[in-house]
Amino acid sequence: MTTLEQFERGLRLDQYIATIAQSKENFRANFIKATEAFSADDLAFFRSLPTKINVAVATEDANLDALRDIPIIGRLSVEVGKLVLRLFRPATHADVVQAIVQDVSSLIALWPDPGVKLPIIAFYTQEMRLIGAHVCRLPELSAEMNRRRSAWIESHPEVLDAREPMVKMTPITRTRLMQAMYALTPEQRAVWGRLTVQYWRRILSAASPLTDRLN
User: Fold this and answer.
1) Is residue 90 within 8 Å of 149, Cβ to Cβ?
2) Do residues 134 and 108 make contact, with C-beta atoms less than 8 angstroms apart?
3) pLDDT tens per residue, range 151-179
4) Which of 36, 114, 134, 213 has the fewest C-beta atoms under 10 angstroms from its C-beta?
């Protein structure tokens, strides 16, 4: 279980942005555009939470799912004032990341392929009771990305290693496939961002530790 002491060792948003080693400008650009992901009703929901929520994020700078979603939770924390955000990289906070992974292990187990999936956005009470978590990306987005992967492979029979696991592909094949899977238009990015914020709302609305506090 992640402790309060471990949580407080994490980076604040400004500290995290200042120390991004890869894709810093992409992160900043997505942070600016993140307001497209939430509505006035979303802001009202988070601002009306009866208590502050500790949000522990395990992430890596160049992770494409992180570049999409972490600017949104970061901007939301700035806008609403009820989300206490701390960020952790495996390279510098390995013990805390491992604790977060253990907290959400039941969610990680739902993924069909093995291994830790980042980013992890874990919501806790102020006493560090786990409320719920968002692991890697929305299930619906994973389904869409798998569809894109299959379509790309079928349309490129000349790429002989395209059907191999990612780790066995050549760097060129892996890059081309990742681009096909992750590419989003501005409109698509806004839609998926809004769905992600709605997912976080459902986590906080349905989880029993927070419900106890609401009552």
Assistant:
1) no
2) no
3) 999 999 999 999 998 889 999 999 999 99
4) 114
Give residue limits of the domains in the chain: 4-136+202-214, 138-183
Amino acid at 95: D
Reply yes or no: is the peptide bond before residue 119 cis, omega within 30 of 0.
yes
The CATH number of 4-136+202-214 is 3.40.30.10
Task: Say if residue 214's pLDDT is above 60.
Answer: no
What is the pTM for the complete model shown?
0.91
